[in-house]
Amino acid sequence: MVTDRIDRTDYRIIKELQENGRLSVVDLSKRVNLTKTPCAERIKRLEKSGVISGYFTQLNPQVVDAGHIVMVQVQLSGTTARDLEEFNDAVRRIPEIQSCLMVAGGFDYLLKVRTRDIASYRELLGNAISKLPSVLQTHTYVVMEVVKDDVTLHLPPNQS
User: Fold this and answer.
1) Where in the chain is the domain with CATH 3.30.70.920?
2) What does pTM read for this prediction?
């Protein structure tokens, strides 16, 4: 298991990088009390092992016309392996679907969808989401306010 090889210093590195992925190796090494070369080697090892799976820039959704959020419950007409695979593949091709979670309960999937406005969402619902493979029905919930939407992972305090 990958986490067996992660020590306190690794946790400090990933904690710092979660807070600011643009830190230079020099600045990061100072924050975690390492010299530049060992810090860079640890980052490469964390990337190669899959602990760090990528870096991204967090955008302001309002500024880039993606401030409207809806959560969509999706119930499928069938849940065979092929049904699920076809649905999953199709969802991955719709960029407005920011998150797709298979859930247990009264429906099969929960989608987080970002669009410019309700009219844009209505168009996406009619032209794409409702036409996804095996979709039986959907229920849409408009998000009125984002209280918390964190993309970082909580790291156990005893590790960092």
Assistant:
1) 68-142
2) 0.87
